Amino acid sequence: MIFLIRLGASILKHVTKLYELKWELRKGEILREDRGAVVVSNHQSSLDILGLFNIWEQADKLTAVAKKELMYAMPFGFAAYLAGVVFIDRKNTKRAYDQLKITSDVMVKQKTKIWLFPEGTRNKDYTSLLPFKKGAFHMAVAAQVPVIPVVFSPYYFINRKEGIFNKGQVIIQCLEPISTKGLGPEDVENLATQVRDAMMAVYKELSKEVTANLPSDYPHTTIG
């Protein structure tokens, strides 16, 4: 199954060429390490899935968890389904829990990385991150696996309301893993805060970097 997922991602990543987007992965060696982990990243658009396809091979054994609604965001939702993304129905609590339990077992037993978006919904504000939901961190603590924060630089080239979608650059920055060894449920809130603070600092740095050399007439946006 992992092989088929990797094959699907390696094929679907070429959709990037249609959108004239350049993806740059930094500190990819963190993702390449052979271990189970919970990977958390910011969520700005269904385009995030395309970014995942472009770095999937780097992470080797990887699967992603996304809300069911994203599956209907064409064309990325269907492509994500083909690539093995696990979609959960948040309205069906029991089924969502069962799916996450299975996914968590795979993470521990097969040293698979599970990718989640703790903001829970698409963030239209390219100047900040939304508050983090705690599910990803509960999963990491329960399995005693590290959390790997990953930051996508702002999608300054997209504004749906204004009909803006230009070619652009996205930097995907991996941060150092944060251990959960010895942590319990009572530590989850502090863990989520620690991860979000670290990601927010990097997000602001990347924002300055990707917009610093844009042409003066480029329709740069801070709203998605």
UniProtKB/TrEMBL annotation:
InterPro entries: AGP_acyltrans, Plipid/glycerol_acylTrfase. Its EC number is 2.3.1.51. This is 1-acyl-sn-glycerol-3-phosphate acyltransferase. The HXXXXD motif is essential for acyltransferase activity and may constitute the binding site for the phosphate moiety of the glycerol-3-phosphate. It is an enzyme of class 2 (transferase). Pfam families: Acyltransferase. Keywords: Acyltransferase, Lipid biosynthesis, Lipid metabolism, Membrane, Phospholipid biosynthesis, Phospholipid metabolism, Transferase, Transmembrane, Transmembrane helix. The chain crosses the membrane at residues 70-88, 136-158. NCBIfam families: AGP_acyltrn (TIGR00530). It catalyses: a 1-acyl-sn-glycero-3-phosphate + an acyl-CoA = a 1,2-diacyl-sn-glycero-3-phosphate + CoA. Belongs to the 1-acyl-sn-glycerol-3-phosphate acyltransferase family. Pathway: Phospholipid metabolism; CDP-diacylglycerol biosynthesis; CDP-diacylglycerol from sn-glycerol 3-phosphate: step 2/3. It comes from the Eukaryota. SUPFAM superfamilies: Glycerol-3-phosphate (1)-acyltransferase (SSF69593).
